[in-house]
Amino acid sequence: MTPEGVKDNDDLVERLAQKSAEVNVLRRIALDINSTLDLDQIYDIVLRTMDKFFGFHHSIILLLEHVDRLRVVASHGYKDQALGGTVAVGTGVIGTVAKRRRLMRVNNLRSQRAYFATIRSQMEEAGRTGELGQIVPLPGLADADSQIAIPLVIKDRLIGVFSVESREPKPFSEHDETLISIVASQAASAIQNALLYRAAEERRKELAEAHEGLKQLNETLEDRVRARTKELEQANRDLRETQAQLVQSSKMASIGMLAAGVAHEINTPIGAIHSNADVERRAVDVIRGILQDPALVKKLGHQPRLDRAFKIFEDVNRITLEATERVTRIIQSLKSFARLDQAELELVDLHEGLESTLTLIGHLMKDRIKVIKNYGKLPKVQCYASQINQVFANVLANAVQAIEETGSITITTYQDGSYVLIQVADTGVGIRTEHLDRIFDPGFTTKGVRVGIGLGLSITYRVIENHHGSIHVQSEPGKGTIFTIRLPIAR
Amino acid sequence: MMDKAMLPDEIKPVMESGIPAIVVTCSADGIPNATIISRVYYVDKTHIALSFQFFNKTIRNVRENPQACVAVSDLAANIKWILDVQYDHSETEGPIFDEMDMQIEAIASATGMAGIFRLRAADIYCVKSFKKLSFTSASSRE
After folding, report:
1. Which of A146, A172, A198 is a domain's end point?
2. Which domain, by its residues, includes B90?
3. Distance between the two ends of chain A, CA-based, in angstroms?
4. Model confidence over B20-71: pLDDT tens digits?
């Protein structure tokens, strides 16, 4: 029995050869498109093979972009390639295939369109244009006569449409439909795999970018934490300085009040002592005058004991007077140093402040330290007197402490334009080079915990900074240190 | 019992690609009507289908008189096929209906005629006989 349509053995052999060639091509396509995950390569293999081996010169692949729209992602054989063109689901052959998810083979498109166009013209002539819709331009051949469109479906989900067109009068056969269906089925799987791979790659890239972003954020966070820590450390230092200043101010206020109290209490008895001593001296002078009367001198004769007594008395009386004057000066210095009554910005004689300070720390120097005063002519300086005195006390006390045995402190003052400079140079042990950068840091001390808390120079620095001035230090270990304070005359 | 003719395979592509076909019907009172239709669908070897979109004279006639004549042309081969058919039944669902409906929708939607062309039914006709005429040997016809 001869298969349908077969003429003879030669025809049968020819048909078998053709079938075999087709199977080989289909197998080759399947292998090629499944060996890559590159979408463009898959499109290229499918479309070129359709042309080269099966003679389908015009083919197009569209992917579902939204639920209601397909976009051309690849095409072959078109003048403008139609790339990027879109088709609404439900419109035209391709749109209808997408909507119904069913293959469509149309072989008399031109005549059918002509028929529809005729009806449309008749309706337009009859004035029934209101019933007509828009003619929709679609990607592909405008004058195609045959078309096979196949939905690309994976697990009941439409991913696109594959369409082959021809303007030749030779129609697509059922055999063509079968060939294209097989290729489309292979293409759908390959495209889906490539799409999934691309989505996974994009996701991987997104994750990598997110990871990188997070990493950068972490690094930024670390920087921010470091910066914040630095800020907090600075705030802590500022707080300690402020606390120290408050304590110092409180101490100064206490000293001031104490000085005022002491002055009040001591001034009267000291005044009485001083006055009495003066009275005693004058009384003794009177007695000495009486005893020098010639009659009495002749009667009493030379009295060496009396002379010694007068000498002792004069010495004691002088010492008493000097002591009371010294006590008076100390009390005055205490009052001047604390300047409780002068807490506002005022014009201050800095030499007066230096002198008060020297008086108060005089007991530290005694005879072992010589103070050399190179005072220049200074105008009065606008400042907070009690704070500046505190600066002098800190600097001078450091100088005294730096001199272990004997030495000297040279105080030099002079005016430099709108500034005054106060230089305190000692012949002490000096400051080690590695400590020079830190001596104004709060808490830094080389004196040991029982001697200092390392806030004196820090407070000094802050006070001068608040006065818009500056302080510099030069030192050479073993030779001494020079502190130079520079203050503006007017704020 | 109605005679049936077996359509050859070669008529299938002609039906698919043929230019608009001609359908001739006749009313119950003997008045003939000829009209052009866009497509004749091959159902199987003994049946064809015509689309019922408008309730026109053709539809009225075949409902009154089921006998009809359909002519499809193969211009490339200069051949015309004449089919004597008889209206059998109408289908409003199923593969034949879906196929016809889909093709009409595809073309109508692109030509702004979606609201005009709508398949009401696939009218199934039984092929009673057919003739194959060659234009080049028109004198001999059958």
Report:
1. A172
2. 11-134
3. 124
4. 789 999 999 999 999 888 788 999 999 999 988 876 899 999 999 999 999 9
pTM above 0.90, yes or no: no
ipTM computed for the complex: 0.82
User: Residues of A with CB below 8 A from B11's CB?
Assistant: none
Is residue A325, in this structure, part of any structural domain at all? no
User: Which residues in chain A touch residue B111, judged by CB atoms under 8 angstroms apart?
Assistant: 113, 116-117, 120, 135
Residue A55 region, left (φ>0) first, then alpha (ψ -120 to 50), else beta? left
**Structural domain containing residue A134:** 34-172
What's the CATH number where B94 sits?
A: 2.30.110.10
Q: Give me the amino acid identity at A112.
A: Q
Averages of pLDDT over runs of 10 residues in chain A (491 residues) are 65 83 84 87 90 87 91 87 82 93 87 82 86 82 89 92 87 86 90 90 92 87 88 86 72 68 78 88 88 84 85 88 83 67 77 88 86 95 87 90 92 95 94 82 59 65 89 91 94 73
| Set of chain A residues whose Cβ sits within 8 Å of the Cβ of B38 | 108, 111-112, 115-116
Query: Is position B6 within any domain?
Result: no
Task: Look at chain B and count its residues.
Answer: 142
Query: CB–CB of B16 and A123 under 8 A?
Result: no
Tens digit of pLDDT for each residue in A55-83? Answer: 888 999 999 998 899 999 999 988 776 67
B102–chain A Cβ distance below 8 A for any pair: yes
Contact B20 A111 (CB under 8 A): yes
The CATH number covering residue A146 comes to: 3.30.450.40
pLDDT of B64 reads: 93
- Summarize pLDDT for A307-364 with one digit per residue, the tens: 888 888 888 888 888 888 888 877 777 777 665 445 678 899 999 989 988 888 888 8
Tell me which of B40, B109, B117 to substitute to probe the interface with A (most A C-beta atoms closer than 10 Å). Answer: B109
Phi first, then psi: what are they for A422, rounded to 5°?
-120, 120
How many domains are there within chain A? 2
Would you say residue B106 lies in a domain?
yes
Q: Do A93 and B107 touch (CB under 8 A)?
A: yes
The neighbouring-strand residues paired with A150 are: A162
Question: Which residues fall within 8 angstroms of residue A347, CB to CB, at 6 or more apart?
Answer: A380, A381, A382
- Tens of pLDDT, residue by residue over B55-113, are 689 999 999 999 999 999 887 788 899 999 999 999 999 999 999 999 889 988 888 88
**CB-nearest partner of A90 from B20, B36, B109:** B109
Residue with tokens 């030749």: A168
